[in-house]
Design a protein that fits this description.
Strand content: 25-35%
CATH topology of the largest domain: D-Maltodextrin-Binding Protein, domain 2
CATH class of the largest domain: Alpha Beta
Shape: flat
Strand order of the largest sheet: 2-3-1-4-11-5
Largest sheet: 6 strands, mixed
Bound molecules: phosphoribosyl ATP, zinc ion
Radius of gyration: 24 Å
Number of strands: 15
Number of domains: 3
Helix content: 25-40%
Structural class: alpha/beta
CATH superfamily of the largest domain: Periplasmic binding protein-like II
Distance between the termini: 30 Å
Order of helices and strands: EHEEHEHEEEHEEHEEHEHEEHE
Length: 293
């Protein structure tokens, strides 16, 4: 029996569906048993642990789970309470994006971090907020709250709040506005720094390659177009993240070519417009299902 690797993901919440989808896209077949705290992966020696997101940094730091998927906000807040980092971020995952922001009541004047001096700021992220205040040389009282932080100004617990923001709708509904960014966050794949057995290390590398493959295909697109010979140089230049496109002569159209390429970066409408202006026609952009470099 090979050593089984343990991967912690959020049980239920904003990251859980995305985390499961990512693992499925990486080809992991998750067994659905009766146990809703753990599941086996059928085709890999990996066990999934379904836990509160707040517990994930501890599990990974202690090596109880070799890997975890968690918001950078939760991870960094935990790390600031540790004397040494016992884990490493191995991949940003592109979902769960949000910002840890300081917000002020709409009617309050705000004139830079100096306006925070001597005030009270409510947050669930006291260490990250304290770091921000220290970096700006501000002396303020950090009021720790475990939830409903946006109510603090109305309840007169604090003047400012420091909370996660994605759409900004919650702030708006509570008459608050963003004044500072403390941290830009997204979900990350984190790995323990505890040494692994050779068996686990091999599975770990394999898992990483698979996840990197999924992330690469999310950004990458296969692009095809036709172009006259004189436009080929400029087109090759415009294509984002392409080293050597495939260029094939078009049957029955002398001087005209088909250009095929894998773009390793996002292809925007602006890129298509530039290609067209350079002389390209019949431009097609297609998703890539699997890729291994
Ligand atoms: O039960 P468990 O402890 O596992 O879950 P949780 O309730 O602590 O976390 P959950 O599921 O709410 O969030 C998990 C992670 O999602 C967070 O740690 C962030 O990394 C990420 N994330 C992304 C967010 C948001 N966007 C977000 N908008 N987490 C929370 N919010 C909250 C925010 O706190 C505020 O109350 O949503 C509200 C603001 O949203 P907007 O859209 O109105 O700006
Ligand atoms: Zn939580």
């Amino acid at each position: 029996m090979p050593d089984r690797l343990h991967l912690a993901i959020q049980k239920s919440g904003r990251l859980s569906d995305y985390s499961r989808d990512l693992l499925r896209d990486a080809g992991l077949r998750i067994q659905h048993g009766k146990n809703n705290l753990a599941a086996r992966v059928e085709n890999f020696p990996i066990d999934l642990m379904f836990v509160r997101d707040d517990d994930i940094p501890t599990f990974v730091a202690d090596g109880v789970c070799e890997f975890g998927i968690v918001g950078l906000n939760v991870l960094e807040e935990f790390a600031l309470g540790q004397s040494e980092p016992r884990f490493e971020v191995v991949a940003p995952l592109g979902f769960g994006r949000c910002g840890l922001k300081i917000a002020a009541p709409d009617r309050l004047d705000y004139d830079g971090p100096g306006s925070l001096q001597g005030t009270r700021i409510a947050t669930s992220y006291p260490r990250l907020l304290q770091r921000f205040l220290d970096q700006h040389g501000i002396d303020a009282t950090v009021v720790k709250m475990n939830g409903a932080v946006e109510l603090a100004p109305r309840l007169q617990i604090a003047t400012f709040i420091c909370d996660l923001v994605s759409t900004g709708a919650t702030l708006e509904a509570n008459g608050l506005r963003v004044v500072e960014t403390v941290l830009d966050s997204e979900a990350v794949l984190v790995r323990t720094r505890k040494p692994m057995s050779p068996g686990k290390a091999e599975v770990s590398e394999n898992l990483l390659r698979r996840i990197e493959g999924v992330l690469a295909t999310q950004e990458s697109k296969y692009i095809m177009m036709n172009a006259p010979e004189e436009a080929l140089d400029e087109i090759t230049h415009i294509l984002p993240g392409v080293e050597a496109p495939t260029i094939l002569p078009l049957a029955g159209r002398p001087g005209h070519y088909a250009v095929h390429a894998v773009c390793q970066e996002s292809v925007f409408w602006e890129t298509l417009q530039k290609l067209k202006a350079a002389g390209a026609s019949a431009i097609l952009v297609m998703p890539i299902e699997k890729m291994m470099m």
